[in-house]
């Protein structure tokens, strides 16, 4: 389904059947977001749905209203689905327990970000033609990354091999039990991998006792032309964004959308794919008997 939506999205004047006409989708973002929020909004509008945009700072949450009361009030306005971004892990599961409407997890704390993993997997499958036996290395702050967790679960279930590369302080304590390959040396990780998902370094970690300094992290774990040239292997590069340029990824690697070179960036392709994948998610949940 996502492939059909993607095909239409990249045409000059894309048009879609309004399969979600008269549906109302509440975009409940308790954290800042650009790519995820706007892609869900575009996905909803492409399918004919109307959206209610919610931000915590301009709502009754700023007056002390609880998350459950907020959702119940929105449900009383007869919305059909909630897209929830929240800083607390487990928030989406909590809301699923109090509403009969569809709840889409748009990122909850350091727990999961399912639609980001789906669009990453779609991007990889579109490029490689398969996910089975693909070697995917996830580089960076895996410990605090909801993107990493969802990608690990999704890629393993699709038959890919997954590795993580990071300082030991930024590895999950249960990493050895996840069925993945562990690296602390970036050169070794690149040699092993077919593609890399680079994670945003959450800059507050540099002062939280997890890292000696940003400079040292960038020296050992930043993905740069020099490191790729040293290994001399073509590497497809993904990043969920936003990126910290010249920290976890260099300008050249982030912006290289075409070979030649030892890498190819898929960062903007991921953004386009995010709209198509989220259209597919919304249609599957709210209009399962229709096709794209």
Task: State the main characteristics.
292 residues, Rossmann fold, 11 helices, 38% helix
Note down, in words, how this protein is organized.
- The chain is of the alpha/beta class and 292 residues long.
- The chain folds into 2 domains: 2-111 and 273-286, Rossmann fold, CATH 3.40.50.1370; 114-255, Aspartate/ornithine carbamoyltransferase (Rossmann fold, 3-Layer(aba) Sandwich).
- Helix content is 38%, strand content 17%.
- Strands 7-6-5-8-9-10 form a 6-stranded parallel β-sheet, sandwiched between helices. A 4-stranded parallel β-sheet has the order 2-1-3-4.
- α4 (91-96) links the parallel β3 (81-86) and β4 (102-108).
- The longest helix has 20 residues, at 267-286.
- The mean pLDDT is 93.
Quick description:
This protein is α/β, with parallel strands linked by helices and 292 residues long. The protein has 11 helices and 10 strands.
Helix segment count? 11
State the share of residues found in helices, binned by percent. Answer: 25-40%
At CATH level 3, the topology of the largest domain is Rossmann fold
Number of distinct beta strands: 10
Counting structural domains, the number is 2
The averaged pLDDT comes out at: 93
Report the CATH superfamily of the largest domain: Aspartate/ornithine carbamoyltransferase
Output the radius of gyration: 20 Å
Topology:
Elements: H1 2-9, E1 24-29, H2 35-46, E2 50-55, H3 67-76, E3 81-86, H4 91-96, E4 102-108, H5 114-128, E5 135-139, H6 146-157, E6 161-165, E7 181-183, H7 186-192, E8 195-198, H8 214-221, H9 225-231, E9 235-238, H10 251-255, E10 263-265, H11 267-286
Parallel strand pairs: 1-2, 1-3, 3-4, 5-6, 5-8, 6-7, 8-9, 9-10
